[in-house]
What we know:
Layout: H1 2-17, H2 26-35, H3 42-54, H4 59-72
Helix pairs in contact: 1-4, 3-4
Amino acid sequence: MSELLLLCWEFFKTGLLAVGGGLATLPFLSRMSDAHPTWFTHEMLANMVAVSEATPGPIGVNMATYVGLQVAGIGG
């Protein structure tokens, strides 16, 4: 459960501080990838951006959903 809370906290900070849309979160996500390499790699980040661009809805929500599913399954 603490992994899920940490994931929520990291994406809360990203959403709070990134102004300018979903692509403005890329520097935050890159640093998150460096800090938590078990969550996602830089290669997975590139895939995440591609999938988020291709699917309908806000890019930031799609990215958070992608990472949540990778880290914590359906609960994420």
